[in-house]
Amino acid sequence: xxxxxxxxxxKLTEQMVKEGxxxxxxxxxxxxxxxxxxxxxxxxxxxxxxxREVLKEKYCLDLPSIxxxxxSSDGTIKVLLSLSDGAKIxxxxxxxxxxxxxxxxxQVGCNMGCSFCSSGRLGKQRNLTVDEMIGQLLVINQxxxxxxxxxxxxxxxxxxxxxxFDNYENLMDFIRIVNHPKGLAIGAxxxxxxxxxxxxxxxxxAQEGLQTNLAISLHAPNNELRNQLMKINKVYPLEVLxxxxxxxxxxxxxxxxxxxxxxxxxxxxxxxxxxxxxxIKGTMGYVNLIPYNETNLCSYKRSSGNRIHLFxxxxxxxxxTATIRKEFGSDIDAACGQLRAKVEDNLL
Length: 348
Ligand code: SAH
Description:
alpha/beta
């Protein structure tokens, strides 16, 4: 059985043609599920009864269900979703002044094994399917609709659990559905993919001709430090990663965001800031400084507010554009993988 929410529109068009249908059927079905929010085939009143039966035999409209929901005083919502095989994934809604951003997971668990991140602790169980990724957005859109304030998702960041480029094909179909005017109709410039840095996938992503954004989890300005924090750096050290990022910029014409987690006395010194400036000099990229969300799974500490501001000043004076990431949900388990890890450990 195929899930209709997993179908990218050109693939669905092909399937409809194979069924002996007119190509417009695909658009019609997209309109039903994304615009009119039909969740059963019987609601699709302008689809003949006979064809509805065909659809029911071949397709389902299953979505993840909410296992747990936490809401922060700042309005951030984190849901732990239950998938059809019982796996649990996290999705977060963040309310910015400019819109509603949803942080989407791309895998159940993660294999990248970054030493500071709770998502990787249990390893990767599997990739998420396209419908499981789309489902995260539909569940959040429903929550927004239930609030009755006419709000909807305006931004999507693939920055939840998992390495999106380790689930490349599904990620691309997901992006196409999110971006399609008959799908979730979210502009490409409002879609961001965050990666730990896989050069081949970065090059491939550059070739897609998308106007989406790319964020690189850099977190360290030299190999010695980055090896400590991110295992992937031993496979793709900075001298291999950075040329791919530069190529991406050249090909796509898009500015890259470098994410830089600030860990007290580890990567937050003036010298580190200077190394970072030297590393990204000549790229169009800008740095997003992330205050570390401490977890009890490792001993890293967040840099002090003062340190974070000094680091920012140093970068700015060195000619690098940088911002400090706004924090959300500090009174709930909003940090990466925290809620799932707690539930798996039976702490909730
Ligand atoms: N695998 C992808 C996307 C998932 S991680 C990637 O590496 O980019 C999303 C971001 O959250 C990454 O920048 C990651 O380094 C960061 N992150 C992980 N644990 C964190 C924590 N405890 N506090 C703050 N940021 C964290």
